[in-house]
Specification:
heterodimer, A: about 325 residues, alpha/beta, Rossmann fold, 2 domains, 6-stranded mixed beta sheet, 4-stranded antiparallel beta sheet, 10 strands, about 20% strand, globular, B: about 325 residues, 8-stranded mixed beta sheet, 11 helices, about 30% helix, about 25% strand
Chain lengths: ~325, ~325
């Protein structure tokens, strides 16, 4: 396993952003971490990169426990894990040229001299589909899609084992998004890195991810192979999420059974008792309010779910109540 | 006669870089109780087109020509004092960001009653009672309690419902909604779209929905206008548009969606949008178009009826799947 997260907890004061989460990513695997605002999905990414200090739990990167490594001890490991941010506008230093931005990790880790870095940068820029003359440009001279390519080039120039991508295409128009998604697919096949792909957009992970983990209020409610999650979502929240995303086909969209969730997402300061989803779940019954369901796989199909209603021979249908 | 008729509208903005030609001659109409989607990618002019109806464009730097008629009355030449009576009463607007459009220092109830007292001349008491009704209309639970709360006490979805309640307080003929669900989570978006549908069905409100999301268009719109580089390139009833897109750009947008992937690849639209500063006499899309012929560079195509009279496309070589 390239990444193993075991019972990760991250509290910001009273806010229980991540509250006991376990997941793992194999070599060359793309895991889509899906959730809505406030689910804690970005906090997971920050903990993996140690951009924030986990409250408790364990994070292993390529077999090595990095949960509480010092900054100094962490530094050489930063070659192995890199991040691509959502906003290509604010994540690139406006005073640096593209060559400096992309080559910076090489110099920082003392991997290449300034002169040798130039060649590596040129090759990397070509790999992400940017013309050589872009090297001397500044971020403000580039379009959003080009900037996101620069972000990818910088993240990949050290050939990391793991890339954390936090909503990397959410700020892009659909035609630009398509080319960046194709590029990520190509680069992942060529370079073989593992990827924690964090997003709210189900259609993007359906396209890109090998496996999906769905988060709700700091916990994973369901995970499994992408095709299986889309074909047979088991958790009522996953079912609601899939049914709420409109499809670009008016005939199908208007015939779909939709699950409209009542109420708001509860505050992560004071999450509900029992199952955290029970306040909005159309199927909730007494046990859901008092006892918290564990993430288990009663059907032993590599598709664990945290719901009292899922048993070896029963999968709930949240749409059936309407 | 249509409720709203926009004819040959052009909007230019004076900027440091020169005259930005945001809208380059668009004509469209909106019927009573119709939900019309204006769609396209960033910078296509969809918001500027819609905001020229209530005249919410910066007066100092905007140069506008053409005609905007509401119920046969010309709005572009009305004195500002008359326009103020129309804004919020006959034409009202819901913006993308509910947090920045609500005043944080007044209760939700006050912000609704303000509109009612100003435009409808209601007493404080009558307006207060109406505010509770309006919150109920937009699906806010416990409306009598919510009117006393401040915007920060509400979730994003609830705030957007409050914005819609304010916008429909005076039963406007036309409601302009600018990306009203883009900042919301998908499970919340479904409920807010239902509010628009419900308002149209119950009050007959006509809606101009500005969106980049073809899923939203498929879900809720009766008719859609696809814009590119300041012009309408295609318009049609929604079922027809999705079943038989005729303009290569419309088809490109649909094929670029992650859900339209073929063999693990997305169809990209090569190239970039043309400069907003120049407007050569050619098809604005020809440089990016797989169907372009020499004549596409010689003059600009105009909207022509396609297989249905109600289906218009501006293309010399329209067609189905390319």
């Amino acid at each position: 396993m390239i990444l193993e997260i075991d019972n990760l907890v991250k509290h910001y004061g009273q806010v229980r952003a991540v509250d006991g989460l376990s997941l793992s990513i194999g070599e060359g695997e793309v895991l889509g971490l899906v959730g809505e605002s406030g689910s804690g999905k970005s906090t997971v990414g920050k903990c993996v990169l140690r951009l924030t200090e986990p409250t408790s739990g364990g994070i292993r990167l390529d077999g090595r426990d990095i949960t509480h490594l010092s900054r100094r001890a962490m530094r050489p490991l930063r070659r192995d894990v890199h991040i691509v941010f959502q906003d290509p506008y604010s994540s690139l230093n406006p005073r640096f040229t593209i060559e400096q931005i992309v080559g910076e990790p090489l110099l920082h880790h003392g991997i290449a001299s300034r002169r040798a870095a130039g060649g590596r940068v040129a090759a990397m820029l070509e790999q992400v589909g940017l013309r050589p003359e872009m090297r001397s440009r500044f971020p403000h001279e580039l379009s959003g899609g080009q900037r996101q390519r620069v972000g990818l080039a910088r993240a990949l120039i050290l050939a990391p084992k793991l890339v954390v991508a936090d909503e990397p295409v959410s700020a892009l128009d659909v035609s630009v998004q398509a080319s960046v998604l194709n590029l990520i697919t190509d680069l992942q096949r060529e370079m073989g890195f593992s990827c924690l792909f964090i997003t709210h957009d189900l259609s993007v992970v359906e396209f890109l991810a090998d496996r999906i983990a769905v988060m709700y209020l700091g916990k994973i409610v369901e995970s499994g192979p992408t095709a299986q999650i889309f074909a047979e979502p088991r958790h009522p929240y996953t079912q609601a999420l899939l049914s709420a995303a409109p499809v670009a086909d008016p005939v199908r969209q208007r015939e779909r059974r939709r699950i409209v969730l009542g109420g708001d997402v509860p505050s992560p300061v004071d999450p509900p008792s029992g199952c955290r989803f029970h306040t909005r779940c159309p199927l909730a019954y007494d046990a859901c309010r008092t006892s918290e369901p564990a993430l288990t796989d009663p059907r032993t199909s590599g598709h664990p779910v945290a719901c009292h209603l899922v048993t070896a021979d029963h999968v709930p249908d949240a749409a059936a109540t309407r | 006669m249509s409720l709203l008729e926009i004819t040959d509208l052009t909007v230019d903005f004076d900027t440091e870089d020169g005259l930005v030609q945001a809208v380059r001659g668009i004509s469209l109409d909106l019927g009573e109780g119709e939900i019309l989607a204006l769609c396209g990618e960033s910078g296509c002019g969809k918001s500027v087109t819609a905001m020229s109806v209530p005249r919410l464009l910066p007066p100092d730097t905007t140069r506008l020509s053409g005609s905007v008629k509401l119920d046969g009355r010309e709005l572009t030449t009305l004195p500002e004092s008359r326009m103020r009576q129309i804004r919020g009463k006959d034409v009202s607007v819901v913006f993308q960001e509910p947090m920045t459009s609500l005043n944080p220092s007044f209760t939700v109830g006050y912000q609704i009653t303000e509109v009612l007292r100003r435009h409808e001349g209601l007493s404080r008491k009558a307006a207060g009672a109406r505010a509770v009704e309006l919150l109920e209309l937009v699906g806010i639970p416990l409306p009598a309690r919510r009117v006393k709360e401040y915007p920060h006490q509400l979730s994003g979805g609830m705030r957007q419902r409050v914005m819609i309640a304010i916008a429909v307080a005076c039963s406007p003929r036309v409601l302009i909604a600018d990306e009203p669900t883009t900042a919301l989570d998908v499970t919340i978006q479904a409920g807010v779209l239902d509010v628009f549908r419900d308002l149209r069905d119950r009050l007959g409100t006509a809606v101009i929905l500005i969106t980049h999301d073809l899923g939203v268009v498929a879900d809720i719109a009766d008719r859609a206008v696809v814009m590119y580089a300041g012009r309408a390139v295609e318009q049609a009833p929604v079922a027809e548009l999705f079943a038989r897109p005729r303009h290569p750009y419309t088809l490109g947008l649909m094929n670029a969606l992650p859900s339209a992937a073929v063999n693990g690849r997305l169809a990209e639209i090569p190239g970039m949008v043309p400069s907003p500063l120049t407007d050569p006499d050619e098809c604005a899309f020809q440089a990016r178009c797989g169907r372009a012929q020499p004549d596409c560079r010689l003059r600009r195509p105009t909207l022509e009826p396609q297989l249905l009279d109600a289906h218009l496309a501006a293309c010399f070589h329209p067609g189905g799947q390319s």
